[in-house]
Amino acid sequence: MGLHGWWSEFGQTVEAADDLVSVAARELAAAIDGSIPGVTVTGFKECATTGHTAVGFEVEVERPQDLAHPIRATEPVAVVFAAQGGQPRVLALRDDFPDTPHQNWTPQGAPCSLCIDDRPWSEAKLTYRPADLIRRIQLWLAKAARGELHDTAQPPDPLFFISQLAIIVPRSALLPATEPVELIGFIRPDNPALIITRVVADTDPRRNGLPGFVVVALRAQPQSMTRLRHAPVTLAALNAELLQAGIDLDGEIKTRLKAWAGIANDSVRRLSSRIAIVVTFPVTAPDSTITDDVRAFISLEAAGQIGVEWGLLLLANSKAAGVAGADNVFVRAVPEGTPSTDDIKIEPAQVHLAFDRELAATVADQATPDRRRAVLVGGGALGSQIGINLAREGRFSWTVADNDYLLPHNMARHALLADEIGAPKALALARQMGWLLNESFTAVAGDVTRPDAELVKEFGEAEVIIDASASVAVSRYLADLGDAHGRRLCVFFNPAGTAVVLLAESADRSITLRNLEAQYHRLVQTDPALDDHLRAEPGVRYSGSCRALTNRIPATNAALLSALGARGLVEALKGDEAAVRIWKVADTGAVQFIEQRGAPAHRATLGDWTIVYDDDLLAELGRLRDGRLPHETGGVLLGIADMSRKSIHVVHALPEPEDSRGSAEGFERGVVGLRTAVSRAVESSLHQLSYVGEWHSHPRKSSPLPSAIDLAQIAWLGGELEHEGLPGLMAIAADDGVFAFVMPRPRSRAS
């Protein structure tokens, strides 16, 4: 076993640990000499040029009988301390040390660098002790011998060789393709070491004046893959390394350079761009799963100039070659010339995959991205945050519909930023969500209740329709939209911004948003936890218009409730049932969850009117009847009357007033407290509920058919409600859950 030549060439020998300049090196030597068995110091080195200090020692390794990697019983190791501090570097000094997982890249000719601690130094230094460093080295060598090095799929952390450049590459650039994916590079003034690339069309004005990069994406084969152990700084050195991984880099680039030669716009653009060589190394984990480790190398010269230096191309005009974006025309050299240099400089770069749907889904712990087509109606404070949050999780292919514009007061709660002020909300939100996922989404800036052909098409193709408009009219319109088949969900804040409400239709749409609106209002009327839930506070005027008011809701509440609503949408879509769900936030930040499952709804046509009621209303009537048997009882009905569609959703039955008189033979409803109770219900529903009729029960063993007295009362009721434009409605409850809804016969009108 020989020592790596680096050890003899590094610095000058120091005879004693006490003579070392580095305090950390002296502490390590003292720890080894003190009490760590199986470790022996072999020497000390200091480099006057760099100020680095190295401590050499031998480590006895606990090895199994069958070695996964040829780790020796005793391995020479050096720990290098930088003069300016920082994380110590651990080098294996054996000249034939094996290639294993969990090694850092090193410069050409340097020893193998062991990644014994993948924590950032800012964290690792908090618990750093010399004895712990030695134990980590011993453990690393023992695990390497057994083939148990953890996190083999994790890209090595380059502690010894640090790349000063990073590049963000879209996933599409790494996929096999006949034509190379062309990217435009953005170099931020505040971070010049980062290249942000995007796939940009030839006509996109963002190309103008920006440096260009053309990607050469290569992939090593798992069965013949050899890990890239060193960080080459020339194309020749990189080619030599990649040949061991089964990749002929020179051949790949030469083929492309020759194909790109010519005067076409594509050729000029490609050869005027720098080359970004992106190599994917499949790393095989112990369970045989394969994870990609991606590395990049950026040429310092333009592709055309490299072709000239290799003798493959000729510069056909007088413009300076190698300047990104210049209109240099390169043509094939026939015959090919002799390469003028083999020293084409490259710079290694860290690779970050651009954020996209796949990465978003993975980070959000989804097995696969959710690509269902969704229409988001409403791009306001709630809609924008829901859309952005769900896009960040890789969910849905979006269409955003909103006919409003982003105004300054929206900045208090909106997900968009001030640079979008004045833009149509739909367009700005769809644009931001699309940029987030590197996709293109649709925006429709129009009145949802009067959709144009484009929006009609989007509704028809949507699998999910999300109403975040905070508009009752829009919600009802979407519920009735017959040409659409997607499941509908409605989400909104209460006026005070202390709760978010989700109405989720059943998957088969047998329970619609209209039905759930009625059931939501019944829940508000009956659950004490929702007292003052719909209390309206005075708004804030944001312009001179008397209607220009916005609610007083802090951004923190809006953000928290929006996140709860977005999560609730996702969870609701996992099941088929309908539900009303409310998340209520206390001043302390505690969240109370209230849920009511959707009740099956029923429809009855009485004259020109459609009466809708549900099983929970019938159960409510049944409980009120049973509570007074054998006497009859009754009260008033509250409901949602939609005059435009001549429909009444019966929502809630109030119990009998205290001055009512009931017996086994009849019932006479009282009036004490009734007006107050009805007014309270109307106000607490923001005037969505109103008085729509009466109900009463029949005694045991009686049918729900109206008696003569009932018929007279129905006629009276119709006359009373006629001036309200309502028909008057009576519900009769009888045995075994049997009910009847009765309306007066419409009066004939003289012609």
TrEMBL record:
Entry GO MF terms: metal ion binding; metallopeptidase activity; nucleotidyltransferase activity; ubiquitin-like modifier activating enzyme activity
Domain of life of the native organism: Bacteria
Keyword Transport tagged: no
Domain JAB, first and last residues per copy: 617-718
Gene3D superfamilies: Cytidine Deaminase, domain 2, NAD(P)-binding Rossmann-like Domain
GO biological process: proteolysis
Keywords: Hydrolase, Metal-binding, Metalloprotease, Nucleotidyltransferase, Protease, Transferase, Zinc
Coiled-coil ranges from the UniProt annotation: none
Any matching Pfam family: Prok-E2_A
Protein name: ThiF family adenylyltransferase
